[in-house]
Design brief:
mainly alpha
Length: 140
């Protein structure tokens, strides 16, 4: 059996996402140091910036890897979830407060978008699909 590896670009993206996620968790969600007053008041903006950063890093790395289907899935899931969040925000801002069920779904979606879980899932799917492309035996 051959050993399978993810491209090295994949791991650079993973570590960038881990760093971004760790900084957000340590400084915005569970602050370990005193934060300036503008941080809590701009928490939503900082979340959107972080979501955008992770999304752009994923696009950059997956394009460098040259795997079209992975880029399609990355964009499809992110755009669908971002559209859901934007529609919820527009509804709450312009029409009425969100129902409890929808409001409760927003935090896990934001957490999913800023964490590297989906990125790793795509990497595992890549390894799974790639194992069927390579053959261990050479034909004479």
């Amino acid at each position: 059996m051959s050993s399978q590896q993810l491209p090295k670009h994949f791991w650079s993206g993973f570590w960038i996402m881990i760093l971004a996620y760790t900084l957000v968790r340590l400084f915005f969600y569970e602050p370990v140091v005193a934060m300036p007053q503008w941080v809590p008041s701009n928490r939503q903006l900082l979340r959107w910036i972080n979501i955008t950063f992770v999304y752009v890093v994923g696009i950059w790395v997956i394009r460098r890897m040259g795997i079209g289907w992975m880029l399609l899935l990355w964009n499809l899931v992110h755009i669908a979830l971002l559209a859901y969040l934007l529609l919820a925000a527009v509804y709450e801002w312009g029409i009425a407060p969100l129902p409890y069920g929808i409001r409760g779904s927003v935090a896990p979606i934001i957490e999913f978008l800023i964490s590297p879980v989906y990125y790793i899932g795509l990497g595992v799917l890549y390894l799974y699909l790639n194992r069927f492309k390579k053959t261990d035996h050479q034909q004479p």
